[in-house]
Write a structure and sequence with these properties.
With 115 residues, this protein is mainly α. The chain has one domain. It is built from 3 helices and 2 strands. The longest helix is centred in the middle third of the chain and has 14 residues. It is globular, with a radius of gyration of 17 Å. It starts with 14 loop residues before the first helix and ends with a strand. 1% of the residues are buried.
Length: 115
């Protein structure tokens, strides 16, 4: 899709949050035994409903790792970013923090609403 302000091509997704290969292995196995692979509470597929192979997700996760920017947070640091241009918050965080979110106007992408 195109970024609504810059026209730059972006790939906006959260497959790594929903694909079963991103679950802990023991959790995935227990869920598949309990409800079956087709009925997992967390799942994503290609747009036509075909399954996304685990090796495709491993590739996507590798791309995330190769492009990640990691830095040491300091007291008082603020992060402001364009949610269409940056994946963020993928690593575990410990400690106190405040999360403030500002949402812009809803946008229409290929007939679907995005906030």
């Amino acid at each position: 899709m195109e970024h609504p302000l810059t026209g730059e091509g972006v790939w906006f997704n959260q497959a790594q949050h929903w694909h079963p290969s991103c679950l802990d292995e023991d959790v995935r196995e227990a869920l598949e035994r309990g409800v079956g692979a087709a009925n997992l509470p967390r799942h994503c597929t290609f747009g036509d409903g075909a399954p996304i192979p685990d090796e495709y997700m491993r590739h996507v996760l590798g791309v995330y790792r190769r492009h990640q920017v990691v830095f040491s947070w300091q007291r008082g640091d603020v992060l402001a970013l364009d949610n269409l241009m940056w994946a963020h918050g993928r690593n575990p965080y410990q400690g106190r923090r405040a999360i403030l979110v500002a949402m812009g106007n809803a946008r229409r992408y290929a007939g679907k609403m995005a906030w």
